[in-house]
UniProtKB/TrEMBL annotation:
Keywords: Signal
Protein's name according to its UniProt entry: Fimbrial protein
Annotated signal sequence range: 1-20
Origin superkingdom: Bacteria
Length: 155
């Protein structure tokens, strides 16, 4: 009986391991009054045509700190694209950076040229950030990515 229970436990452990996540999230923790981390929303599959204001993807910012506060989300420099009149964050295809999707953070204000500040996030709470398309566009097939980090907001 003990051998059967041990075999069953080992088998179930193998099944659980086989069902492990196929995607990992890099988390950044900043020490200070509020402690923030950022993770990506689940990946989406989009068609080749994208409408203006369509939800492309986004992030979830968590505050694990003891107090409420604002977070500043900063985009990787490679994810800042120049459009006709300004520079904005963009999802890019790592194999062909000329393929991109210009986006904005729904309802959030720019903190500087490469990021934005969230509203106040309560301790232990999360804030969902939706990245929306700035324009209609036809997309070429590929895998588009947007990389961001988070830090305590200075304003």
């Amino acid at each position: 009986m003990k051998k059967t229970a041990l075999f069953l436990a080992l088998s179930l452990g193998g099944i659980c391991a086989a069902n492990a996540a196929t995607q990992a999230t890099s988390t950044v923790t900043i020490s200070g009054d509020a402690v923030y981390s950022i993770e990506a929303q689940p990946a989406k599959i989009l068609g080749t045509w994208l409408g203006k204001d369509a939800n492309v993807g986004g992030f979830i910012v968590s505050n694990a700190g003891p107090i409420e506060g604002k977070a500043e989300v900063v985009f990787d420099g490679a994810n800042m694209c120049r459009s006709e009149s300004s520079t904005s964050p963009c999802y890019i295809d790592k194999t062909d950076p000329t393929k991109n999707i210009l986006v904005y953070a729904e309802g959030l204000n720019w903190a500087d040229a490469t990021g934005f500040t969230t509203p106040v996030i309560q301790a232990g709470a999360k804030s969902t950030i939706n990245m929306k398309a700035t324009q209609e566009q036809t997309l070429k097939p590929g895998v588009y990515e947007l990389t961001a980090s988070v830090q305590v907001a200075t304003n």
